[in-house]
Amino acid sequence: MSSTENDATGEMTWQHVPGIRDALEDRHGGRGGRIYGGVRWGGAGLFSIIFLGLIGVLLNQSWAGFVHMGPSILWKSWDPTHQIFGVGPFVIGTLLTTLLALVLAVPIGLGTSLWLTELAPRRLAGLLGGAVEFLAAIPSIVVGFWGLIVLTPVFTNYVEPFVKTIPLLKSLFTGPSLGPSVLLAGVVLAIMVLPTIVSLSRTALSGVDLADREAGRALGATRWQVARVVLTGARRGVRASITLAMGRALGEAIAVALVIGNRVAVPKSLLAPASTLGSAVVNFFAEANPGTLEKSSVVAIVVVLLIISVAVNAGGQFLLRSKLASRDPEAFPTTDVRVVLDDTPWGEDRPEQRARIRESAAASLPRRRRQGRAGAALCTLALGVALVPLIALVGYIVLKGGPALSWQFLSGLPTPPGIPGNGIGNAIVGTIIIVAVALVIAVPISLGAALFVTEHPGRISSILRFAGDVLTGAPSIAIGVFAYAVIVVNFGYSGFAGSAALSVLMIPVMMRADEEAIGTVSADLWDAGLALGSKRGRVVRSVVLRTALPGLISGNILALARAVGETAPLLFTIFGSQLLVVNPGSPMAALPTTIWNNATQAYSDAQQAAWGAALVLLILVVILSTIARLVAARLSRMAS
Which end of the chain is more exposed for a tag (fewer CB within 10 A), N or C? Predict the structure, then answer.
């Protein structure tokens, strides 16, 4: 029997083995086969409906705004009094904050990745790398709240006066020091995208062929010079990490809305308040009346943001999946190590040239060692800078939220500002119910779609994967507006509307994780099931899903951890309730919206409740992320 190897595991997978699919088709009959076929086609069909529905609803809701403004919507300002609904200032604000975030995060992220991959001891690299990547698990509402309360006074009193004194850059930092600004929003975004750059860059650096490292060491290259060679070889993956980080920064709305100042104007300085596409939707959506031109124009902002974010994320995904970013040794056009040691051009590799390499390397060794020490110091500094926001953020949340934790706080109900006994029991219960319902919706759809694309390789599956990538890169605020237009407008605010929005966020992540997990099942297990006379559905249920269960659980928990901390979709769907509500068909409270509602209030007890809710939400996300990592580690041990 001929076979191919699975790219990730090196094992044969059933969909690549000629004859197995035909045998499965012969065993399709019977009630079990029809049920299994319905699961596959139903999952793919529902996923397609969700994707097409999202595109169709957003275009339909925004059509009036686009028609009213025409192409000028991209450069005119926002003035509802004169029926002018342009997104020009928001586009500029989005591009400025994103560019600033990348300028800050890229060198820190690459330096950290190089230190962790090439310069650090393995155990220490794993510990510190996990700590930096833990920033990705912190919900955006928590980062934004911390930026508002902690960073705003620091920037007002220290950072902004300092940057005004920098000779070559002070022209960028003019005007009064107000705190909320493009600069502060850029720093907050840099903190949020840093884990993406570190994680994906580490993966790309680790994927460079070991022969490149060994060749450098054999020719006398220092560790820093070898790291330079590795960085060159991993440039495709590094570019992909930067592109995906850019997409993350473009789509962020909640954290930016808390720290940017939300002024509708083109910023003339990095210290000036501004608005981004995402923050504008957060601020204007609730104020616009349904069915009006203003409401349609707000949805048009969402469409513009969606188009930009999807285009950037699609570029990043293309780079990650391209042949040049694969682990194929031929895919990495690495730098010749000899060029690192000596700038002399080389022709054919002859004995006298090898001698010249050794002589040149020996003569330049002191200089190269100095360069290596300087490079290692810069990478170490980058790691330290990357760890600072994690330590400061988590430490401050624990410091401020810890005193609020009590049984009364965790089980009680909210009270008006100034009245003691404030609690978040309704938000905790609401979060659990909303996320549980979202999980019930997302798991069967994502699993059915994953089985479909696994068993039916071809154009349809490629289209479904592309749709999944689009939804994965879609800003969460666009999903919230979609759920509002479909459910809230017709049935009112409810916990179910929030669950539906979160499920749309979870499905593409779960689908890709499920597909990868199912793809690890070897062809031998399928053969064994078929040899015993089992039908397709029985083999999948008893063999495939059971074998892939650790990977399925890990991917689903990671998607769940992401959904738990999402704020934007819930702002538009659940409305919030001060009572303890267990019926998902009614308006409910949730931890992210509780933080949002209390964060901007001037009352100390309200902010205390926000910090306590932030700590509870952080603990919940950490627990889920830890479980997912443990399951993934177990899966790796089972595969080895």
Answer: C
What single string gives the DSSP state of each residue in 261-326? B--SS--SSTTS-B--HHHHHHHHTTTSPTTSHHHHHHHHHHHHHHHHHHHHHHHHHHHHHSGGGS
Give the end-to-end CA distance of the chain in Å, rounded to a whole number.
Answer: 25
Of the three residues 361, 383, 404, the one that is the final residue of a domain is 404
User: Cα separation of 429 and 426, whole Å?
Assistant: 5
Q: What is the pLDDT of residues 558-598, one digit of tens each?
A: 788 888 889 999 999 998 888 888 899 999 999 999 999 88
Q: What is the largest CA-CA distance in the chain?
A: 86
Output phi, psi for 6, to 5 deg. Answer: -70, 135
Is 1 among the domain residues? no
Pair 387, 536 in one domain = no
| Other CB atoms within 10 Å distance of the CB of residue 287 | 10
Query: Which residues lie closer than 8 Å to 311 by C-beta, 6 or more apart?
Result: none
Same-domain status, 333 and 444: no
**Average pLDDT, integer, range 91-103:** 95
Asked if residues 143 and 393 have their Cβ atoms less than 8 Å apart, the reply is yes
- 3-class secondary structure, 581: coil
Residue 89 has pLDDT above 70, yes or no: yes
Instruction: Give the count of beta carbons closer than 10 Å to the beta carbon of residue 325.
Output: 22
Question: Which pLDDT band, with edges at 50, 70 and 90, does 347 fall under?
Answer: very low
How far apart, in Å, are the Cα atoms of 586 and each of 412, 527, 593, 596? 20, 50, 16, 20
| Shared-domain flag, residues 284 and 148 | yes
Which tens digits make up the pLDDT trace of 68-77?
A: 999 999 999 9
* Whole-number average pLDDT of the chain: 82
Rg of the chain (C-alpha set): 27
